[in-house]
């Protein structure tokens, strides 16, 4: 069975299930108000955001649907006119391309400025996540349009545990480091007990940043050719692999499993391991404070209980972690690196409640919503005018100031990985994920890393070629790209 036939079968099954669910749904009464449905994740912050919207819009009734967030399911339902009014969890690097290809997202370019949620209100790098290039079938041209607006957006940087650095007398990392200097710092705070690290210097999980540091990407800027077999990509992949198996400063999957089995709380995420004192630094973003605040509260309560029972043993009391932050290392051209991401909300092209949906998008750009995002440290709100340190800091957590400041500083260095109009963003992301997971999983020689990159590069190039061969729209897009001077796909330049 071909992939196209399989997609049709799966779509048919999902549509049938959706129809049954729609016919038998037991929707609660909206009380005469206009009902809006928002598909998003079940994060407790979403509940508060829904409540605030409903308070500010008494004629509307927004309902969160957290159990219907599968991309293909939303696409099938939306195509059949039974989807949610508002499609959440749309990310540039994973799902936006799928939604755009399916034609289920409303073009908001004209209406957004009227309601105050234009892409122009966003930081420059975030604008590129919302104001994207698409194919216009009516004019057979490529154009840009706004198809979403961030519920929040984030930039990556380094968060470190000052307590560990202070304990072992290691100077804090800073924002002027090269990659090589950063690796040396990770080695100094990797503390061994016998042959195994008791504390790892770094959590890892910065593969996309490392690609940028070596001035490369998964695909070229035109979106026509894989770069996975390029010299720069292989160099970045080799350096990333060294963190785990040569320098041994990052916990492998087995290491994480072992640490989890030894006890602790909140699993083996980067923030959890840092809070437990098992890693000294993590590749972070401001949204990680949601978890770090829980760890801070737990550590504070444990220290208080110990001191109440043993007031004369303060030196033995549980430590409350102190945080620090700095930018990611500089790239080979001397410029700092930060990856920019956004969790967007889009409007279903077939919604029957357009005006109400636009009001929700307006809400995402409003000050009350921004205040809630800032207070909860849920990354950053969309509008650049609400990105201020005074809005970020919390009297309840005074030790976070460096993280807030670095979250703002990183915006200046924000980058976005290349995308393609020819192959879905999910395919590109799958490629980089496959490479990263292999690099983290087991020891490899430099030759094995090179062969692996060549294989995944060939697969990505083949995916691009297949899309052009079997999809008439993709073929038209390809011709338009060539007319603009884009590099031909491999095999088409002979």
The rounded distance between the terminal residues' Cα atoms is 32 Å
Share in β-strands: 5-15%
Secondary-structure-derived class: alpha/beta
Q: Could you tell me the radius of gyration in angstroms?
A: 24 Å
Uncertain runs with pLDDT below 50, 5 residues or more?
A: 1-28
Largest β sheet strand count, sense and barrel closure: 6 strands, mixed
Structure annotation, total helices:
20
Q: Quote the average pLDDT.
A: 90
Overall outline: globular
Key traits:
494 residues, alpha/beta, 6-stranded mixed sheet, 3-stranded antiparallel sheet, disordered N terminus
Account of the protein in words:
This protein is of the alpha/beta class and 494 residues long. It is 45% helix and 14% strand. It has 20 helices and 13 strands. It has helices at 3-23, 44-56, 71-79, 96-102, 112-115, 124-130, 162-167, 179-188, 207-213, 231-245, 253-261, 270-275, 289-309, 354-364, 367-376, 389-392, 401-409, 425-441, 446-470, 472-483; strands at 34-39, 60-65, 86-90, 131-136, 141-146, 149-155, 157-161, 191-193, 196-199, 281-284, 323-326, 338-347, 414-415. The strands form 4 sheets. Strands 1, 2, 3, 6, 12 and 13 form a 6-stranded mixed beta sheet that branches. The longest helix is centred in the last third of the chain and has 25 residues, at 446-470. It is globular.
